[in-house]
TrEMBL record:
A divalent metal cation 2 binds at residues 111, 174, 207, 238. Its EC number is 3.4.11.18. CDD domains: MetAP1 (cd01086). Residues 253-272 are annotated as: Disordered. This is Methionine aminopeptidase.
Length: 272
């Protein structure tokens, strides 16, 4: 069942969304060469505890996965894109890190994801991240009353096609509100004009993710971490969005980063 939230409900979700965006920004600033993934996990745990929030991931046990998820953030490196289990891995120069986090505060949930390059970025990795971010913004722009879910999905698929990336339809966006995963499911490609008609009060997590070379995925032995089947790099962007009468309202915007992770090194100034 799809629940449409009241303006007061959306304001409560905005509080949660601002916290999620803030912590993801902090994790992006902390991600650096030599940092262990478990350091990022423990930072997120501390922040959640300090805020009195609840992780939507801790004890999450869907039909896939091997046992309940016992972490508060998904950390996926390079060819891993979704549900990456934090483990003892030290980030290296050029790693592409995708971070995904969802929490509940006072009964209302928000979910967001962000990809960064650690250290020296490769142009092809920056392009892949850019594609997910452009696709996310394109999907947000059409999250308007009277449009349909197919318009949101098609907007993502169109950007993927423009950049030349294939699209996997097994995992995508979803409704969100009182719990992390609600109806409806939002594939990352679709046909315009099809599906549920968008109405004010609909709250959804839109999450384009692409692999550079394939739309096929494989699972690690841990039962959680999802990777590109061909080992190509991956990236993931996600925001929690509310459909309103005026314009789409992004509830999980991140503050400006304290340092730039995705700026290519500038060439040296010519000398005479």
């Amino acid at each position: 069942m799809i629940e449409h939230k009241s303006p007061k409900d959306i304001e409560r979700m905005r509080v949660t969304g601002e916290f999620v965006g803030q912590v993801l920004a902090e994790l992006g600033d902390l991600a650096a060469v030599g940092v262990n993934l478990l350091d990022l996990e423990h930072h997120a745990r501390r922040r959640i505890k300090e805020r009195g929030a609840e992780s939507c991931y801790w004890d999450y046990a869907p039909s896939f996965g091997k046992g309940p998820f016992r972490n508060v953030v998904c950390l996926s490196v390079n060819d891993a894109v979704l549900h990456g289990l934090p483990h003892s891995y030290t980030l290296r120069d050029g790693d592409l890190l995708s971070m995904d986090m969802a929490v509940t505060i006072d009964g209302w949930s928000a979910d967001s994801a962000h990809s960064v390059v650690v250290g020296t970025p490769a142009p092809e990795d920056l392009r892949l991240i850019e594609a997910t971010e452009v696709a996310l913004e394109a999907a947000i722009e059409v999250a308007l009353p009277g449009n349909r879910l197919g318009d949101v999905s098609a907007a993502i698929g169109a950007v993927a096609a423009e950049y030349g990336y294939p699209v996997n339809l097994e995992f995508g966006g979803h409704g969100i509100g009182r719990t992390m995963h609600e109806d409806p499911h939002i594939p990352n490609d679709g046909r315009p004009g099809r599906g549920w008609k968008l109405r004010p009060g609909l709250t959804i997590a839109i999450e384009p993710w692409f692999a550079a070379g394939t739309n096929r995925i494989v699972f690690d032995p841990d039962g959680w971490t999802i990777r590109s089947a061909d080992g190509s790099r991956t990236a993931h962007s996600e925001h929690t969005v509310a459909v309103t009468e005026a314009a789409p309202l992004v509830l999980t915007r991140r503050p400006a980063p304290a340092k730039a992770h995705q700026t290519a090194p500038q060439p040296p100034t010519p000398t005479r």
